[in-house]
Amino acid sequence: MDDTARGAATALRSAPACRLHREGPPPAGPGLLATVHHGDAATPPELVAGVPRVRLRVSADAAAGFTETWTAPGTVHSGRSGGMVFAHTDEHLFLAGHLPRGDRCARAVAVAYSAAFELVLSLGFPRLVRMWNLVRGINDTRSGTEVYRAFCAGRAEAFDRHRARGLGMPAATAVGALGGGIGFHLLATRSAGVTHLENPRQVAAYRYPRRYGPRPPSFSRATWLQPDPVEPGRGVLYVSGTAGILGHESVHPGDARRQCDVALRNIAVLIGRANTARHGIAAGFTPTDLRSVRVYVRHARDLDAVRARCALALDPAADVVFVVTDLCRRELLVEIEAVASASGGARCASAPHGGGPAP
Protein backbone atom coordinates (compact mmCIF):
# COMPACT_ATOMS: atom_id res chain seq x y z
CA MET A 1 0.00 0.00 0.00
CA ASP A 2 1.49 3.38 -0.98
CA ASP A 3 1.55 6.36 1.42
CA THR A 4 -1.53 7.98 -0.13
CA ALA A 5 -3.62 4.82 0.11
CA ARG A 6 -2.37 4.13 3.62
CA GLY A 7 -3.28 7.67 4.68
CA ALA A 8 -6.78 7.34 3.27
CA ALA A 9 -7.30 3.98 4.99
CA THR A 10 -6.06 5.36 8.29
CA ALA A 11 -8.40 8.36 8.01
CA LEU A 12 -11.36 6.07 7.49
CA ARG A 13 -10.37 4.17 10.63
CA SER A 14 -9.90 7.31 12.72
CA ALA A 15 -11.89 7.57 15.93
CA PRO A 16 -15.01 9.74 16.13
CA ALA A 17 -14.12 13.34 16.97
CA CYS A 18 -16.06 15.63 19.30
CA ARG A 19 -16.11 19.42 19.33
CA LEU A 20 -17.79 21.72 21.86
CA HIS A 21 -19.71 24.84 20.82
CA ARG A 22 -20.74 27.39 23.44
CA GLU A 23 -22.52 30.02 21.36
CA GLY A 24 -24.91 29.76 18.45
CA PRO A 25 -25.89 26.71 16.43
CA PRO A 26 -23.05 24.32 15.62
CA PRO A 27 -21.90 24.40 12.02
CA ALA A 28 -22.88 21.63 9.65
CA GLY A 29 -20.18 19.84 7.75
CA PRO A 30 -19.03 16.58 6.22
CA GLY A 31 -18.97 13.51 8.40
CA LEU A 32 -21.43 14.91 10.96
CA LEU A 33 -22.71 12.00 13.09
CA ALA A 34 -24.76 13.91 15.69
CA THR A 35 -25.28 17.02 17.78
CA VAL A 36 -25.86 16.74 21.53
CA HIS A 37 -27.10 19.89 23.24
CA HIS A 38 -26.76 20.22 27.01
CA GLY A 39 -29.01 23.07 28.05
CA ASP A 40 -32.29 24.14 29.63
CA ALA A 41 -34.70 22.00 27.57
CA ALA A 42 -35.05 18.30 26.78
CA THR A 43 -36.73 16.58 23.85
CA PRO A 44 -36.62 13.00 22.58
CA PRO A 45 -33.84 12.45 20.04
CA GLU A 46 -34.77 13.31 16.48
CA LEU A 47 -33.34 13.48 12.98
CA VAL A 48 -32.86 17.03 11.69
CA ALA A 49 -31.79 17.21 8.05
CA GLY A 50 -30.70 13.61 8.40
CA VAL A 51 -28.52 14.24 11.48
CA PRO A 52 -29.38 12.89 14.96
CA ARG A 53 -30.07 15.70 17.40
CA VAL A 54 -30.14 15.09 21.15
CA ARG A 55 -31.35 17.75 23.59
CA LEU A 56 -30.65 17.14 27.29
CA ARG A 57 -31.84 19.36 30.12
CA VAL A 58 -28.94 19.64 32.53
CA SER A 59 -29.42 23.23 33.70
CA ALA A 60 -32.18 25.75 34.35
CA ASP A 61 -29.90 28.43 32.89
CA ALA A 62 -29.83 28.62 29.09
CA ALA A 63 -26.54 30.54 29.21
CA ALA A 64 -24.83 27.56 30.85
CA GLY A 65 -25.53 25.29 27.88
CA PHE A 66 -23.16 23.88 25.29
CA THR A 67 -23.42 21.65 22.24
CA GLU A 68 -21.24 18.73 21.18
CA THR A 69 -20.82 17.81 17.55
CA TRP A 70 -19.63 14.30 16.75
CA THR A 71 -17.95 13.70 13.41
CA ALA A 72 -16.19 10.82 11.69
CA PRO A 73 -14.48 10.52 8.30
CA GLY A 74 -16.44 8.86 5.53
CA THR A 75 -19.97 8.88 4.16
CA VAL A 76 -22.64 9.11 6.87
CA HIS A 77 -25.88 7.12 6.78
CA SER A 78 -28.66 7.84 9.28
CA GLY A 79 -32.04 6.51 10.30
CA ARG A 80 -34.51 5.87 13.10
CA SER A 81 -35.91 2.75 14.70
CA GLY A 82 -38.33 2.32 17.58
CA GLY A 83 -37.90 5.85 18.90
CA MET A 84 -34.11 5.73 18.55
CA VAL A 85 -32.04 7.67 16.03
CA PHE A 86 -28.65 6.75 14.67
CA ALA A 87 -25.95 7.71 12.20
CA HIS A 88 -22.91 5.80 11.09
CA THR A 89 -19.98 5.66 8.73
CA ASP A 90 -18.50 2.40 7.56
CA GLU A 91 -16.65 2.10 10.87
CA HIS A 92 -18.36 4.09 13.64
CA LEU A 93 -21.91 4.41 14.98
CA PHE A 94 -23.70 7.02 17.09
CA LEU A 95 -27.09 6.03 18.56
CA ALA A 96 -29.46 7.83 20.93
CA GLY A 97 -32.70 6.99 22.70
CA HIS A 98 -35.04 8.20 25.43
CA LEU A 99 -37.26 6.57 28.06
CA PRO A 100 -40.22 8.54 29.41
CA ARG A 101 -40.53 8.76 33.17
CA GLY A 102 -42.42 5.87 34.75
CA ASP A 103 -42.74 3.80 37.91
CA ARG A 104 -41.29 0.58 36.49
CA CYS A 105 -37.81 1.94 35.85
CA ALA A 106 -35.87 -1.33 35.89
CA ARG A 107 -38.20 -3.05 33.44
CA ALA A 108 -38.33 -0.04 31.11
CA VAL A 109 -34.54 0.28 31.07
CA ALA A 110 -34.09 -3.44 30.39
CA VAL A 111 -36.46 -3.27 27.42
CA ALA A 112 -35.08 -0.01 25.99
CA TYR A 113 -31.41 -0.90 26.36
CA SER A 114 -32.00 -4.39 24.96
CA ALA A 115 -33.63 -2.78 21.94
CA ALA A 116 -30.66 -0.42 21.59
CA PHE A 117 -28.19 -3.30 21.74
CA GLU A 118 -30.21 -5.27 19.19
CA LEU A 119 -30.14 -2.29 16.86
CA VAL A 120 -26.40 -1.82 17.35
CA LEU A 121 -25.84 -5.47 16.43
CA SER A 122 -28.25 -5.47 13.50
CA LEU A 123 -26.47 -2.44 12.03
CA GLY A 124 -23.18 -4.33 12.26
CA PHE A 125 -21.35 -2.45 15.04
CA PRO A 126 -20.76 -5.15 17.67
CA ARG A 127 -18.20 -3.33 19.82
CA LEU A 128 -19.52 -0.80 22.32
CA VAL A 129 -17.08 2.00 23.08
CA ARG A 130 -18.83 4.65 25.23
CA MET A 131 -22.25 5.28 26.77
CA TRP A 132 -23.80 8.33 28.45
CA ASN A 133 -26.92 8.06 30.63
CA LEU A 134 -28.80 11.14 31.88
CA VAL A 135 -31.30 10.13 34.55
CA ARG A 136 -34.04 12.39 35.93
CA GLY A 137 -34.33 12.11 39.73
CA ILE A 138 -31.36 9.76 39.91
CA ASN A 139 -31.34 9.78 43.73
CA ASP A 140 -35.12 9.77 44.18
CA THR A 141 -36.93 6.77 45.61
CA ARG A 142 -39.68 5.28 43.48
CA SER A 143 -41.68 2.18 44.38
CA GLY A 144 -39.35 1.63 47.33
CA THR A 145 -36.13 1.64 45.27
CA GLU A 146 -33.68 4.41 44.44
CA VAL A 147 -33.97 5.34 40.77
CA TYR A 148 -30.26 4.77 40.10
CA ARG A 149 -30.38 1.28 41.62
CA ALA A 150 -33.42 0.42 39.54
CA PHE A 151 -31.67 1.81 36.47
CA CYS A 152 -28.62 -0.38 37.18
CA ALA A 153 -30.83 -3.46 37.54
CA GLY A 154 -32.45 -2.85 34.16
CA ARG A 155 -29.18 -2.04 32.45
CA ALA A 156 -27.57 -5.21 33.84
CA GLU A 157 -30.45 -7.31 32.53
CA ALA A 158 -29.96 -5.84 29.07
CA PHE A 159 -26.25 -6.63 29.15
CA ASP A 160 -27.01 -10.15 30.40
CA ARG A 161 -29.23 -10.77 27.39
CA HIS A 162 -26.40 -9.87 25.01
CA ARG A 163 -23.35 -11.14 26.87
CA ALA A 164 -22.90 -14.15 24.59
CA ARG A 165 -22.80 -11.85 21.56
CA GLY A 166 -19.64 -10.12 22.75
CA LEU A 167 -20.78 -6.52 23.09
CA GLY A 168 -18.50 -5.93 26.05
CA MET A 169 -19.05 -3.48 28.90
CA PRO A 170 -17.91 -0.02 27.76
CA ALA A 171 -16.86 3.14 29.51
CA ALA A 172 -19.93 5.02 30.72
CA THR A 173 -21.32 7.92 32.71
CA ALA A 174 -24.63 8.01 34.59
CA VAL A 175 -25.57 11.33 36.19
CA GLY A 176 -28.69 13.29 36.99
CA ALA A 177 -30.67 15.47 34.62
CA LEU A 178 -33.58 17.89 34.84
CA GLY A 179 -35.41 16.57 31.79
CA GLY A 180 -38.06 13.88 32.11
CA GLY A 181 -37.14 10.22 32.02
CA ILE A 182 -33.79 8.84 30.92
CA GLY A 183 -31.80 9.96 27.90
CA PHE A 184 -28.95 7.85 26.58
CA HIS A 185 -26.52 7.90 23.70
CA LEU A 186 -23.61 5.72 22.72
CA LEU A 187 -20.69 5.14 20.40
CA ALA A 188 -19.90 1.75 18.86
CA THR A 189 -17.47 0.51 16.24
CA ARG A 190 -17.51 -2.17 13.58
CA SER A 191 -13.96 -3.54 13.55
CA ALA A 192 -11.59 -1.20 15.39
CA GLY A 193 -9.73 -2.64 18.35
CA VAL A 194 -11.51 -2.09 21.68
CA THR A 195 -10.02 -2.72 25.13
CA HIS A 196 -11.93 -2.10 28.36
CA LEU A 197 -9.80 -1.05 31.35
CA GLU A 198 -10.17 -1.38 35.11
CA ASN A 199 -8.41 0.57 37.87
CA PRO A 200 -6.20 -1.10 40.52
CA ARG A 201 -7.41 1.48 43.07
CA GLN A 202 -11.05 0.48 42.60
CA VAL A 203 -13.19 -2.63 42.56
CA ALA A 204 -14.63 -3.17 39.09
CA ALA A 205 -18.07 -1.53 39.15
CA TYR A 206 -19.74 -4.69 37.84
CA ARG A 207 -18.37 -6.52 40.92
CA TYR A 208 -19.71 -4.13 43.57
CA PRO A 209 -21.35 -5.85 46.56
CA ARG A 210 -25.13 -5.93 46.92
CA ARG A 211 -25.11 -3.10 49.47
CA TYR A 212 -25.18 -0.77 46.44
CA GLY A 213 -28.24 -2.35 44.87
CA PRO A 214 -29.71 -5.60 43.55
CA ARG A 215 -27.45 -5.45 40.46
CA PRO A 216 -24.10 -3.66 40.17
CA PRO A 217 -23.40 -0.92 37.62
CA SER A 218 -22.53 -2.17 34.12
CA PHE A 219 -19.49 -0.28 32.87
CA SER A 220 -15.71 -0.40 32.70
CA ARG A 221 -13.47 2.34 34.08
CA ALA A 222 -12.23 3.29 30.60
CA THR A 223 -12.25 2.08 27.00
CA TRP A 224 -9.34 2.25 24.55
CA LEU A 225 -10.30 2.55 20.89
CA GLN A 226 -7.50 1.61 18.50
CA PRO A 227 -8.62 2.39 14.94
CA ASP A 228 -5.59 0.97 13.14
CA PRO A 229 -4.19 -2.47 14.10
CA VAL A 230 -0.77 -1.66 12.62
CA GLU A 231 -0.38 1.40 14.89
CA PRO A 232 -0.83 0.03 18.43
CA GLY A 233 0.18 3.31 20.09
CA ARG A 234 -2.40 5.37 18.20
CA GLY A 235 -5.91 5.64 19.54
CA VAL A 236 -8.36 7.26 21.92
CA LEU A 237 -8.97 6.54 25.60
CA TYR A 238 -12.48 7.27 26.89
CA VAL A 239 -12.48 7.65 30.69
CA SER A 240 -15.74 6.83 32.48
CA GLY A 241 -17.29 9.11 35.04
CA THR A 242 -14.82 8.81 37.94
CA ALA A 243 -15.55 9.83 41.53
CA GLY A 244 -14.01 9.81 45.00
CA ILE A 245 -14.31 6.04 45.42
CA LEU A 246 -11.55 3.77 46.70
CA GLY A 247 -12.19 0.05 46.48
CA HIS A 248 -15.96 0.28 46.31
CA GLU A 249 -16.48 2.85 49.09
CA SER A 250 -17.08 6.59 48.80
CA VAL A 251 -14.50 8.64 50.70
CA HIS A 252 -14.36 12.11 52.29
CA PRO A 253 -18.12 12.67 52.78
CA GLY A 254 -19.08 16.33 52.64
CA ASP A 255 -15.69 17.47 51.27
CA ALA A 256 -15.88 18.22 47.55
CA ARG A 257 -12.27 19.38 47.35
CA ARG A 258 -10.86 16.13 48.73
CA GLN A 259 -13.26 14.01 46.69
CA CYS A 260 -12.07 15.86 43.59
CA ASP A 261 -8.45 15.10 44.49
CA VAL A 262 -9.24 11.39 44.86
CA ALA A 263 -11.11 11.35 41.54
CA LEU A 264 -8.16 13.01 39.78
CA ARG A 265 -5.72 10.56 41.36
CA ASN A 266 -7.94 7.65 40.32
CA ILE A 267 -7.84 8.93 36.75
CA ALA A 268 -4.06 9.39 36.89
CA VAL A 269 -3.56 5.75 37.90
CA LEU A 270 -6.17 4.49 35.43
CA ILE A 271 -4.59 6.18 32.40
CA GLY A 272 -0.97 5.85 33.50
CA ARG A 273 1.46 3.70 31.56
CA ALA A 274 1.66 1.02 34.25
CA ASN A 275 -2.08 0.37 34.05
CA THR A 276 -2.44 0.72 30.28
CA ALA A 277 0.49 -1.69 29.78
CA ARG A 278 -1.27 -4.13 32.11
CA HIS A 279 -4.13 -4.09 29.61
CA GLY A 280 -1.84 -4.53 26.60
CA ILE A 281 -2.02 -0.90 25.42
CA ALA A 282 1.12 0.71 24.02
CA ALA A 283 0.17 4.29 24.96
CA GLY A 284 0.11 5.80 28.44
CA PHE A 285 -1.10 9.17 29.71
CA THR A 286 -1.03 11.63 32.60
CA PRO A 287 -3.83 14.06 33.60
CA THR A 288 -2.02 16.82 31.70
CA ASP A 289 -2.69 14.85 28.50
CA LEU A 290 -6.47 15.12 28.92
CA ARG A 291 -8.05 17.46 26.41
CA SER A 292 -11.74 16.76 26.89
CA VAL A 293 -12.83 16.88 30.51
CA ARG A 294 -16.33 17.12 31.94
CA VAL A 295 -16.64 17.76 35.66
CA TYR A 296 -19.99 17.08 37.32
CA VAL A 297 -20.48 18.87 40.64
CA ARG A 298 -23.47 18.22 42.90
CA HIS A 299 -23.62 21.67 44.53
CA ALA A 300 -22.98 25.01 42.84
CA ARG A 301 -21.35 26.24 46.05
CA ASP A 302 -18.47 23.80 45.45
CA LEU A 303 -17.70 24.97 41.91
CA ASP A 304 -14.89 27.37 42.81
CA ALA A 305 -13.07 24.81 44.97
CA VAL A 306 -13.42 22.09 42.34
CA ARG A 307 -12.27 24.41 39.55
CA ALA A 308 -9.18 25.26 41.57
CA ARG A 309 -8.29 21.60 42.14
CA CYS A 310 -8.78 20.75 38.47
CA ALA A 311 -6.66 23.72 37.41
CA LEU A 312 -3.76 22.35 39.44
CA ALA A 313 -3.98 18.86 37.93
CA LEU A 314 -4.88 19.55 34.30
CA ASP A 315 -3.03 21.27 31.49
CA PRO A 316 -3.97 24.96 31.14
CA ALA A 317 -5.08 24.24 27.57
CA ALA A 318 -7.40 21.42 28.64
CA ASP A 319 -10.98 21.61 27.38
CA VAL A 320 -13.07 21.59 30.58
CA VAL A 321 -16.81 21.92 31.13
CA PHE A 322 -18.38 22.09 34.61
CA VAL A 323 -21.96 20.85 35.05
CA VAL A 324 -23.99 21.12 38.27
CA THR A 325 -26.09 17.99 38.63
CA ASP A 326 -26.87 15.05 40.90
CA LEU A 327 -24.56 12.03 40.92
CA CYS A 328 -25.07 8.29 41.22
CA ARG A 329 -24.55 8.13 45.01
CA ARG A 330 -26.02 10.71 47.36
CA GLU A 331 -22.73 11.19 49.20
CA LEU A 332 -20.69 11.83 46.05
CA LEU A 333 -20.06 15.49 45.27
CA VAL A 334 -17.76 15.37 42.21
CA GLU A 335 -17.44 13.11 39.17
CA ILE A 336 -15.02 13.56 36.27
CA GLU A 337 -15.01 12.05 32.78
CA ALA A 338 -12.44 12.67 30.08
CA VAL A 339 -10.93 11.73 26.73
CA ALA A 340 -7.26 11.42 25.82
CA SER A 341 -5.75 10.62 22.46
CA ALA A 342 -2.38 9.39 21.29
CA SER A 343 -0.99 10.46 17.89
CA GLY A 344 -4.24 12.19 16.93
CA GLY A 345 -7.87 11.19 17.39
CA ALA A 346 -10.86 12.41 19.33
CA ARG A 347 -10.69 15.75 20.99
CA CYS A 348 -13.30 18.22 22.21
CA ALA A 349 -12.18 21.78 21.55
CA SER A 350 -13.48 24.60 23.73
CA ALA A 351 -12.40 27.68 25.60
CA PRO A 352 -10.23 26.69 28.58
CA HIS A 353 -11.50 27.10 32.14
CA GLY A 354 -8.55 28.28 34.12
CA GLY A 355 -5.28 26.45 34.45
CA GLY A 356 -2.06 26.10 36.32
CA PRO A 357 0.86 23.77 36.67
CA ALA A 358 0.27 20.18 37.63
CA PRO A 359 1.45 19.43 41.16
From TrEMBL:
Matches recorded under CDD domains: YjgF_YER057c_UK114_like_5
Top-level division of the source organism's lineage: Bacteria
The Chorismatase FkbO/Hyg5-like N-terminal domain, residue ranges: 68-188
InterPro entries xref list: Chori_FkbO_Hyg5, FkbO_Hyg5-like_N, RutC-like_sf
SUPFAM superfamilies, per database record: YjgF-like
Disordered: region residues: 1-34
Residues that, per the record, bind substrate: Y148, R155, Y208, R221
Catalytic residues identified in the record: E335 (proton acceptor)
Protein name: Chorismatase
Organism: Saccharothrix australiensis
